[in-house]
Amino acid sequence: MAEQIHYRPAEAKQYRQDTLAEFERLEGRLAEINGLLDELYDSGLIRWLKDFAGAFPQISHIAVESMNTPQGHAGMRNLLVVAQQLGKIDPDQLERTFASINAGMTEAAKPARDDTPYNPPGVTGVFKLLHDKELWATLSPLIAGAKAYGQARRQAGDEQPEKRDDAE
């Protein structure tokens, strides 16, 4: 019977250069993944995720039960309406609007001082305020917004009949 030849070339015992480079990249990635896992474990996030996954059946049961109520249905519908309306607004315009609201709220939160120019103006002071250009420049966008809001409400009222209680 013939014997098997146990000859292997010297190159067969060594990895190719591109394979070695791939191994080095893989070792670096594994080291990063291990570091990330260590940090997640040390911070307690992995334990929290494990506990959450274990309690998921109970959590999902509670969520489904609460969603299966009239309030849950209305809440989800309201969230969808808000998301749709936010999709219609230009993000830059929304950012400017919220920045303006924030500036206004910051000013409104400051306590009034005794020397403030907005003390009760009296009758002549009211007439002076009517001619204050800065005041009207400030109020004009609010008035225009209120008019547009009212017009949109009237148009929506024409399209949809109002719900009225006959019990009144």
Short structural description:
The chain has helices at 17-43, 45-67, 70-88, 91-109, 122-130, 133-159. With 168 residues, the chain is mainly α.
- Beta content comes to under 5%
Largest sheet: none
| Mean residue pLDDT | 84
Secondary structural class: mainly alpha
Account of the 3D structure:
The N and C termini lie far apart (110 Å). The chain is 74% helix and 0% strand. The radius of gyration is 35 Å and the shape is elongated. The chain is mainly α. It has 6 helices and no strands. The model has no long low-confidence stretch (mean pLDDT 84).
Helix and strand layout, with pairings?
Layout: H1 17-43, H2 45-67, H3 70-88, H4 91-109, H5 122-130, H6 133-159
Task: Based on the model shown, name its key terms.
168 residues; mainly alpha; 6 helices; 74% helix
